[in-house]
């Protein structure tokens, strides 16, 4: 009986320790009121996050990525099904996306144990 209680206590302690190690990390999204700049900071984050953004025809969206660890994926799609960008395994860098259709776009960020940041800036025409 005493041996069974010790084993049960050990299993319960081990279960709590394993559950305590599991984390989805942290994601922080900040931006200006005009919707011209948005920054996403990731800290050991795993998950999927979506944000809406209205873009005009021929808008240029600058994307700066910084990846310290983990995997970061990004997709930018219009509600009409136009895919402006899709990328997986993003590294540190910068690129510009030109959208050819005006409308609401969904920015989808997916991460697996990702640490880094993504900054979106609407460039002036």
Task: Kindly describe this structure.
Strands 1, 2, 3, 4, 5 and 6 form a 6-stranded antiparallel beta sheet that branches. It is built from 1 helix and 6 strands. It is 16% helix and 61% strand. It has one domain: Sandwich (Jelly Rolls). Strand 1 and strand 2 (37-55) form a beta hairpin. The chain is α+β, with helices and mostly antiparallel strands and 125 residues long.
Helix content: 10-25%
Estimate what percentage of residues fall within beta strands.
over 45%
Count of the separate structural domains:
1
- The CA-CA distance between the termini, in Å, is 77 Å
Outline, from the CA principal axes? globular
Question: What is the CATH fold-level name?
Answer: Jelly Rolls
Mean pLDDT: 85
Q: What is the strand tally?
A: 6
The radius of gyration computed from the alpha-carbon positions, rounded to a whole number of angstroms, is 20 Å
- Largest sheet properties: 6 strands, antiparallel
Helix and strand content put the structural class at: alpha+beta
The CATH class turns out to be Mainly Beta
**How many H/I helical runs?**
1
Order of helices and strands: HEEEEEE
Low-confidence stretches: 2-22
* CATH architect. name: Sandwich
């Amino acid at each position: 009986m005493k041996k069974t209680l010790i084993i049960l206590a050990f299993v319960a302690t081990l279960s709590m320790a394993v559950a305590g190690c599991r984390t989805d990390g942290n994601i922080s999204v900040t931006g200006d009121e005009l919707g011209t700049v948005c920054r996403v900071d990731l800290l050991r984050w795993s998950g999927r996050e979506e944000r809406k953004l209205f873009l005009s025809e021929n808008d240029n969206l600058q994307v700066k990525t910084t990846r310290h660890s983990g995997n970061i994926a990004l997709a930018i799609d219009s509600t009409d099904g136009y895919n402006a960008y899709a990328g997986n395994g993003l590294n540190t860098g910068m690129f510009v996306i030109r959208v050819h259709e005006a409308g609401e776009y969904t920015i989808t960020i997916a991460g697996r144990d990702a640490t880094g940041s993504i900054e979106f800036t609407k460039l002036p025409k």
